[in-house]
Amino acid sequence: MTFVVTENCIKCKFTDCVDVCPVDCFHEGPNFLVIDPDECIDCTLCEPECPAEAIFAEDEVPEGMENFIELNAELSQKWPSITEVKDPLPDADEWNGKSGKLQYLEK
Ligand code: SF4
Ligand code: F3S
């Protein structure tokens, strides 16, 4: 199994998740992070750290967000690794919790 970053990370990118991952399996795009499913060891540490509650175990991804499982797998192969926390995106608090953010995903 793996953990999966879902829609509410988009335009927030708080990066608290990166700090706790023991295997450095997060990858960073312009306004979203993903988890490499081949590297994730299911330690569960990142899930409670995300202020946007965007991280779920693969088998607990909310209905309608199943497409993020494939997106994490795909984009983690393309984007560089991120291993250190950085500032969230400028309007992160404003975007936290908004729906329909997939349209803003920058690849
Ligand atoms: Fe990293 Fe653990 Fe989260 Fe997987 S579950 S992404 S290994 S912190
Ligand atoms: Fe995104 Fe949450 Fe990490 S907003 S960058 S998954 S802490």
Concise account of the structure shown:
With 107 residues, the chain is α+β, with helices and mostly antiparallel strands. It has helices at residues 16-20, 67-78, 92-95; strands spanning 3-5, 26-28, 33-35, 55-57. The termini are far apart.
Question: How would you describe the overall organization of this protein?
Answer:
This protein is of the alpha+beta class. The protein has one domain (3-83): 2-Layer Sandwich (Alpha-Beta Plaits). The protein is 20% helix and 11% strand. It is built from three helices and four strands. It has helices spanning 16-20, 67-78, 92-95; strands at 3-5, 26-28, 33-35, 55-57. A two-stranded antiparallel ribbon has the order 1-4. Strands 2-3 form a two-stranded antiparallel ribbon. The radius of gyration is 12 Å and the shape is globular. The N and C termini lie far apart (24 Å). The model has no long low-confidence stretch (mean pLDDT 98). The structure holds iron/sulfur cluster and FE3-S4 cluster (F3S). The site of iron/sulfur cluster has 13 residues, from loops.
Structure classification: alpha+beta
Placed side by side, the strands forming the largest sheet appear as 1-4
Low-confidence stretches: none
Bound molecules: iron/sulfur cluster, FE3-S4 cluster
How many beta-strand elements?
4
Distance between the termini: 24 Å
In this structure, how is the largest beta sheet organized?
2 strands, antiparallel
CATH topology: Alpha-Beta Plaits
Work out the count of structural domains: 1
Please provide the ordered H/E string of secondary-structure elements.
EHEEEHH
What is the CATH top level name? Answer: Alpha Beta
Helix content: 10-25%
